[in-house]
Amino acid sequence: MTDQGTAPDRKLLVAMPSMSTVNSETAIAFATVCMRARVEGWTVACANIQASRIERSRNLITDAAVNFGADYMLMIDSDMYFPQDTAVRMIAHNKPVVAVAYRARTPTSPRMIGYDVTYDELSGHETGLVEVGQIGFGITLIRMDVIRTLPKPWFRAEPKEGTLDTIGEDLMFSRAVRKAGYPIYVDMDLSREVTHIGKCQVHLDGTVT
């Protein structure tokens, strides 16, 4: 309980699922996002959780967010670059799930990772906040009331019937969230300030630096 006239403690977990390495540009951007959120009055916990399977990393992060009593959880992959106000801008939308759209790291065929409500690939020309059908998890903010309505494990991959492939944990999570009645959004303006880092950086418009 807070004293009368005192703002309630607002808690944010910023976490990165990774294996053995983290891109240096991502690490610096990650630190600035945490610092900026603290300046804006948030109580911030930061974590880098390593596991051999990405869905296990995401489940461990989510469990940590629950135990921390977080209001929001921001997951950032270890190969993304983004502005320092990423968290506060995403939180300001006050939506259940907000992500960014971004390009795959293949310069010769940089497909869009982000799909509209009809599951067509986004064009990259959209502006503002756009409701989508499914997302990649490069940078994703989740309001914790969403997590409380979903069964464990929150993240899981499933075999794709008739193939040797799997349906990734990000797409499975998108389906579970929408089935629970929550919309998913992509901030297309923020997406233009985000790059996906490989041997080069691939921007939303497909240009490579």
What report would you give on this structure?
There is one protein chain. The termini are far apart. The strands form four sheets. The protein has an eight-stranded mixed sheet with strand order 2-1-3-10-5-13-9-8, sandwiched between helices. A three-stranded antiparallel sheet has the order 4-14-15. It has a two-stranded antiparallel sheet with strand order 6-7. Residues 1-6 have low confidence and may be disordered. Strand 14 and strand 15 form a beta hairpin. By secondary structure, it is of the alpha+beta class. It has one domain (11-147, 156-202): Spore Coat Polysaccharide Biosynthesis Protein SpsA, Chain A, CATH 3.90.550.40. It is 28% helix and 27% strand.
Under CATH at level 1, the class stands as Alpha Beta
Q: Looking across the biggest beta sheet, what order are the strands in?
A: 2-1-3-10-5-13-9-8
The major sheet is characterized as:
8 strands, mixed
Determine Rg (CA atoms, Å).
17 Å
Counting helices, strands and paired strands, the structural category is: alpha+beta
Shape: globular
Helix percentage range:
25-40%
Give the averaged pLDDT, no decimals.
89
